[in-house]
């Protein structure tokens, strides 16, 4: 471990400030807590919010897993992982069940999370009303008044224009029957994993300087109309070409030689673990 930086890069005062904001976010599920976002050795918009949460919480006994859109080996995931491990010396893993802290961009792992784990999600736009109201002052007042007609109007306009709710990702959710929250750009397929999760879910937006949270066993419901229920991406009749997995979120790919479509698990760690179990059976 390098000695040129304090453990986990930040000074202890910065860690305490971020942890205080995190505790407030946990105490008020779904509420966006402002915090003094620090300068990082990566550009804002590349996961600085999630990284600041991870660095403020990580301990010497933790095991880290960092993924980007389901992959443990994407450029973004690898570079964030290097910063965490080189400034802490902690162990890293690809195995979801072994990790104590999981930082992710755009996905929640397929393997169900367990008690004691922390899932940190990177967030570009934390405000679910931003697309209908540009003013931060007004959106704060709308949250205080529990006035979410703008979010419902956005979904209604999608139905009128496309015949269904067309949010491919970041579909707004109601947390603990109080705050409407942006779940980060996870696919609709992952929204249900937030409901009554065994793990603590933390969401950080570095550029927007916001932290919010979903404590374990909290009720999370995706916004939907009675006559237009919330639906997730369907892979019912699809199987992964590598591991044979099904009922998971998959990538649709094209074989360059044959031009035929095929499907593959988006979660690379899940796919590898399932393939190992299939080969050893």
Would you kindly provide a brief summary of this structure?
This protein is of the alpha/beta class and 281 residues long.
Write the layout of secondary structure elements.
Blueprint: H1 12-27, E1 33-34, H2 48-57, E2 63-68, H3 75-88, E3 91-92, E4 101-105, E5 118-122, H4 136-144, H5 149-162, E6 173-175, E7 179-181, H6 188-191, E8 200-205, E9 210-214, E10 220-222, E11 250-254, E12 261-265, H7 268-280
Parallel strand pairs: 2-3, 2-4, 4-5, 5-8
Antiparallel strand pairs: 1-9, 6-7, 6-10, 8-9, 11-12
Helix pairs in contact: 1-2
Written description of the protein model:
The protein is α/β, with parallel strands linked by helices and 281 residues long. The protein folds into two domains: 12-222, 3-Layer(aba) Sandwich (Rossmann fold), CATH 3.40.50; 234-281, no CATH class. Helices cover 28% and strands 18% of the residues. It has a seven-stranded mixed beta sheet. A three-stranded antiparallel beta sheet has the order 7-6-10, with no helix packed on it. A two-stranded antiparallel sheet has the order 11-12. Helix 1 crosses helix 2. The model has no long low-confidence stretch (mean pLDDT 94).
């Amino acid at each position: 471990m390098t000695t040129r930086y304090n453990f986990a890069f930040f000074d202890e005062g910065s860690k305490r400030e971020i942890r205080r904001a995190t505790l407030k976010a946990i105490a008020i599920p779904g509420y966006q807590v402002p915090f003094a976002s620090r300068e990082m050795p990566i550009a804002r918009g590349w996961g600085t919010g999630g990284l600041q949460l991870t660095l403020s919480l990580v301990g010497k006994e933790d095991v880290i897993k960092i993924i980007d859109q389901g992959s443990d080996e994407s450029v973004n995931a690898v570079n964030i992982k290097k910063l965490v491990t080189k400034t802490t010396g902690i162990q890293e893993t690809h195995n979801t069940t072994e990790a104590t802290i999981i930082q992710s961009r755009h996905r929640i792992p397929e393997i169900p999370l367990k008690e004691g784990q922390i899932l940190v999600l990177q967030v570009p736009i934390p405000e679910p009303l931003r697309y209908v109201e540009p003013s931060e002052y007004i959106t704060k007042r709308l949250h205080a008044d529990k006035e979410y007609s703008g979010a419902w109007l956005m979904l209604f306009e999608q139905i009128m224009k496309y015949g269904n709710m067309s949010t491919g990702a970041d579909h707004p959710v109601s947390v603990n029957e109080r705050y409407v929250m942006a779940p980060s750009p996870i696919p609709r397929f992952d929204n249900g994993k937030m409901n009554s999760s065994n793990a603590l879910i933390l969401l950080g937006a570095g550029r927007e300087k916001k932290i919010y949270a979903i404590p374990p066993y909290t009720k999370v419901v995706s916004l939907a109309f009675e006559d237009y229920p919330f639906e997730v991406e369907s892979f019912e009749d699809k199987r992964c070409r590598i591991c044979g997995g099904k009922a998971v979120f998959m990538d649709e790919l094209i074989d360059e030689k044959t031009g035929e479509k095929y499907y593959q698990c988006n979660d690379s760690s899940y796919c590898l673990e399932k393939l190992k179990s299939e080969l050893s059976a």
